[in-house]
Amino acid sequence: MTRKERWQTLLDLLVERGGLEVEPAAEALGVSAATIRRDLDQLAEQQLLVRTRGGAVPHGVSYELPLRYRTSRRAAEKLRISEAVAALIAPGEVVGLTGGTTTTEVARALAARADLATGSPALTVVTNALNIAGELVIRPQFKIVLTGGVARPQSYELTGPLAQQVLGQLTMDTAVLGVDAFDPADGAATRHEDEAAMNRLLCERARRVVIAADSSKLGVRAFARICATSQVDVLVTDTGLPPEVATGFTTAGVEVVRV
Predict the structure, then answer these.
(1) Residue 68's pLDDT band (boundaries 50, 70, 90)?
(2) Is the pTM of this model over 0.85?
């Protein structure tokens, strides 16, 4: 297990248990207590947790891992999903991308497409995600439109009235959304109301809405609603999607693509 994988596991356990003690954590990861103490000290330096005597607790009341520490979760599924979503986009389209680990992979899959290597522009990408804009701006064949707004450090997303004002003036062919939850009855949702407001507006400004989400996020609910299921055209997910949940989406008129 690499250090990055070990840190990811420690942070996952911290969220799950609400706190960590050195000895149980060392046993769970199969490493020495000294290694765990060193890991916790380094994570505390990055303000990802608070060290206590003998362990650690989450940093703050509302705990969320920054994007860079969520990229390894269900990585294989996200890679397959991102490639399938990218294949849905035609050259010359205007594409809206929300922030998140899966949509970041979609951006990378679009950048890797040979048929999008040239054009003027080959693709127009509208995003409120700083990291996505940063990765794509080096490709001169892509026109990148970045909204203004206030940056959320956990997700690198710009939100708030400034971001909404810019997005409200644009129209898109396809909006690709990353979500925290998507349920046939309750629709798409995220944990934060400011992100939900941006994603909702992105849906309203696009002709087609595509949700890219691994199966762990499906058939569940989250705090802030983005849109109704009927507003989603395509769901791209992995083969772990339960058949009864898939039926619920197709009954609501959503095309389900499992990869």
Answers:
(1) low
(2) no
